Amino acid sequence: MTYDFSKLTNRHHTNSLKWDVKDNELPMWVADMDFETAPEIIEALHQRVNHGIFGYNIVPDEYFQSIQNWWLKRHHYYIEKEWMMFCTGVVPAISSIVRKMTTVGENVLIQSPVYNIFYNSILNNGRHVLSSDLIYDGYDYHIDFEDLERKLSLSQTTLMILCNPHNPIGKIWDKETLQRIGDLCAKHHVMVVSDEIHCDITAPHDEYIPFASVSQTNLMNSITCIAPTKAFNLAGLQTACIVVPNPILYHKVNRGINTDEVAEPNSFAICSTIAAFEKGETWLDELRAYIENNKQIAIHFIEQYLPHLHVVPTQATYLLWIDCSYICKDSVELVNDIRETTGLYVSDGLEYGENGRSFIRMNVACPLERLHDGLQRFYKAIKQKEK
User: Fold this and answer.
1) CA-based, 20 to 30 A from 121: which of 97, 144, 303, 304?
2) Domain that holds residue 322
């Protein structure tokens, strides 16, 4: 490998949300990697800092071109410049879209278990969460399309938030599934917001499919949120892009993010994004291989030493979704016990929906030595729970 992903960078006492823990604790919860970002990005940031002036910023054509080139090369989808707008983050984008494109009291449909902040974006804006729960067969998840259509057909359902790839289960939705979702939403006049922030963290031989690329129907009835932040560990730099091919929807979304004051970049957002997409490809490919190796080590460890647990098959993200129903029906209690007895901090599945109550989410985007430490702590806690 060209890059060193095994470096143990100390993140204690750096105002890190993830590492705001006691010195003996090991956080493997929030979706934030313990790898230093690509040196090419760091160099671009050094150049920007060395300039010494940090006034108001514009979004140059080069920003949009870097996204266009990346999505065409990596994801076989050409994004017109006229479809794109800068936003300070995917979550601010989704919250603004909910406010602008729906009315108080309407239903926003999600597919639980799903990223917990979707609930906040919906409920905090006075809309109703309506879940078409993913069906778990004891091994993997699938969509209940009858339930999905029934809920899309409700007169108060006006927006669907799609997670593609899906967090926390790590599933890449295939073309047929995306087409079927798109057709149902168009049939029932439900707009789609596709959160594709995890799209570049896939297994080395797996590719995600942009929702809007599947058909003209999907293209014209969707708003896509993308960002370099998950793939390149740049969340603190607050940079994202909203893609809206439909000019009428574009106008409304653009008005919304400007009204909400989330459309202006800070002094580091633009240069980091350009560096990521223009110079970060080799780093990302090596990162994906490292993460996949971490995943396989964790999965094999659990299969061998904790066979009563089950890791749901994963194609994307650096997160593992672990079925702990054999030993515990309450993941809140379980993760608290794990943290109290071993210092390992993982996420309880209930955060992602009621049907995640017996699951935990574990972040394995860390140096291998740290992963081994986490797995040993996990083993110790589960064995104590089994007694």
Assistant:
1) 144
2) 26-39+281-386
% the chain with pLDDT above 90: 98
For residue 57, the number of C-alpha atoms closer than 13 Å in the C-beta half-sphere is 20
138, 162: one domain: yes
Do 354 and 373 lie in one domain? The reply is yes
Cα–Cα dist 195/232, whole Å: 17
Non-local CB neighbours of 352 within 8 Å, separated by 6+ positions: 112, 113, 114, 115, 116, 168, 359, 361
* 4: in domain: no
Final residue before a domain boundary, out of 279, 299, 334 = 279
In terms of DSSP bridges, do strands 157-163 and 191-195 run parallel, antiparallel, or are they unpaired?
parallel
Are residues 286 and 147 both part of a single domain?
no
pLDDT, tens only, 81-130:
999 999 999 999 999 999 999 999 999 999 999 999 999 999 999 999 99
Instruction: Please state the rounded mean pLDDT for residues 50-55.
Output: 97
CA geometry: angle at 366 spanning 362 and 371, to 5°?
65
Which of 279, 300, 335 delimits the end of a domain? 279
33 with 81, same domain? Answer: no
Report residue 28's pLDDT band, with 50, 70 and 90 as the boundaries.
very high
> Tell me: the pLDDT tens digits for 163-207?
999 999 999 999 999 999 999 999 999 999 999 999 999 999 999
Q: What is the pLDDT of residue 38?
A: 98
CA dist 382 and 12 (Å) reads 26
Residues 220 and 309 in one domain: no
CA dihedral sign, ordered 44, 49, 53, 54: positive
222-226 and 191-195 strand pairing: parallel
CA angle 168, 88, 133 (to 5 degrees): 25
Token pair 């490292």: residue: 290
pLDDT of residue 329: 86
Token couple for 340: 């109290």
Q: Is the pLDDT of residue 1 over 90?
A: no
